[in-house]
Amino acid sequence: MSTNGQYDVQERIVPALTALPRAVYARTESLALPERTRMHSHPWVQLSYAISGVLHVHTASESFVAPPRRAVWMPPGMDHEVFSFARTEMRSLYLAPQLFGAAHNHCRVIEISPLTHELIKQFARCPTGYDESGEDGRLAMVLVDQLRAAREVSLSLPLPQDPRVLQLCRNLQDAPDDNRTLAEWGEALGASEKTLRRILLRETGLSFRVWRQRMRLLGALEALGRGASVTQVALSAGYQSTSAFIAAFRELFGVTPGDFFSVTGG
């Protein structure tokens, strides 16, 4: 369930835009295969939203996961890469920074309400050169108002900068069912357990146990979203039982896996 190395990922080309044709601009993509864009940035706000499918967005310091009815908000100038899985329907919005204040100038995952979902779908059908003073322009401004009010949700995973600990984290993302202890990882990486624990806590704010659990649960969202059984996902994520996985899922997200995707529309 990692985005690193477990899928045959196609390269997705970033459009060569030098300026936005309108203050709110939409791109529609139907992605049959897993795809990724390489690290890049834009001088405008980007909202990455999948009306079906699950997105992973990575920056230098964090990973973000956007299951159904969630979107990743990327401020101007932030280097990022986007991973999409098979059969993803993308609706990307490019937004002029002046439409939003400083409170919106950080990477985050936001909740997409049913109204905002429908507004995005409808706006994506508008022509690129829509009349900003006409019906399409008014639709764009209603959409902007809804995005300004969108609630932030905790679907991110901080990443360390220390090369040894970052390697540890990347290895775990590639193999979430790897149950080696931190002491065993220390032996493999040539660092003491105490050193790894101290660096991970300092650079992510999370203990090894909490970081690994969050990584596993966020990674599990893609498989759950495409209909894999909870038991299958639990075992793939390194849990010894379905009940342990459900308990951890409820602790992080506040609901069971079934309720999570019922609420989010997946």
Automatic annotation (TrEMBL):
It comes from the Bacteria. The keyword Lipid biosynthesis does not apply. The keyword Chloroplast does not apply. SMART domains: HTH_ARAC. It holds the Pfam family AraC_binding. Keywords: Activator, DNA-binding, Transcription, Transcription regulation. Residues 166-263 form the HTH araC/xylS-type domain. InterPro entries: AraC-bd, Homeodomain-like_sf, HTH_AraC, HTH_AraC-typ_CS, RmlC-like_jellyroll, RmlC_Cupin_sf, Tscrpt_reg_AraC-type_HTH. This is Helix-turn-helix transcriptional regulator. It comes from Pseudomonas farsensis.
